[in-house]
């Protein structure tokens, strides 16, 4: 029996799997649930069990998407020249089938938690929403014609990690979707998109060479930078509108600008290298989480 090298498929450690799950993206799962719960609380519809189940759905789907992307990009060879974090399949540290299995397990957990919410709320039409979310998660980079390779990734992130996740969280608790849920969803969706835009701006050169036509590849560096700034501005406007519909304390969401101004300046800096955007990704993720927690904290303070 020959010894395995550090890059053989059997060499993946627990730390490698944790990194492969991409924990830095988890704010995109926690944030919409926190924002949707804030609105539910504002209209006296808070339900802790339903909120926890919604969080489980969001986290499971986020990690599942990360593993699914790792698998799909890895078998296509688009991860062979990466600037960002290590990928399990692309680096050769894990077998593609193992990564695919991890993705399917996560999707299964998310589906089970979502089904529990449907049963508890008797909102059977939400089964269709759940199926759509699972299909969107897989076909982002999976299948013969992944929409992420055609510049549609940001649109689907806005819809499913913004509108669906935030309004859905409010709905499963309060069985209502007031205007505040939609404005909060726009803010969270915009920042979730900003994370993806940063990621695609970082990988622009490699994606173009690999034939991956992301929105960043289509818009080019200047257009992508303008989009990033526009998304942050949209989140600020959405926070103000959410405060109008709930409480002015919800403007605590704007504390997130402490973490977002730096990334805006870094993205606009023509001297920034792709590697510099790794820190931007982290800060935008933190900014999105602070934005959502600010909304929740503001509503809580208003109710004291």
TrEMBL record:
Its EC number is 2.5.1.74. It is found in: Cell membrane; Membrane. GO terms for molecular function: 1,4-dihydroxy-2-naphthoate polyprenyltransferase activity. It is a multi-pass membrane protein. One of its GO terms (biological process) is menaquinone biosynthetic process. It catalyses: an all-trans-polyprenyl diphosphate + 1,4-dihydroxy-2-naphthoate + H(+) = a 2-demethylmenaquinol + CO2 + diphosphate. Gene3D superfamilies: UbiA prenyltransferase. Pathway: Quinol/quinone metabolism; menaquinone biosynthesis; menaquinol from 1,4-dihydroxy-2-naphthoate: step 1/2. One of its GO terms (cellular component) is plasma membrane. The chain crosses the membrane at residues 48-68, 98-118, 124-143, 155-174, 180-201, 222-242, 248-268, 280-302. InterPro entries: MenA, UbiA_prenyltransferase, UbiA_sf, UBIAD1. Keywords: Cell membrane, Membrane, Menaquinone biosynthesis, Transferase, Transmembrane, Transmembrane helix. Belongs to the MenA family. Type 1 subfamily. Conversion of 1,4-dihydroxy-2-naphthoate (DHNA) to demethylmenaquinone (DMK). NCBIfam families: menA, PRK06080.1-3. HAMAP family: MenA_1. This is 1,4-dihydroxy-2-naphthoate octaprenyltransferase. It comes from Parenemella sanctibonifatiensis. The gene is menA.
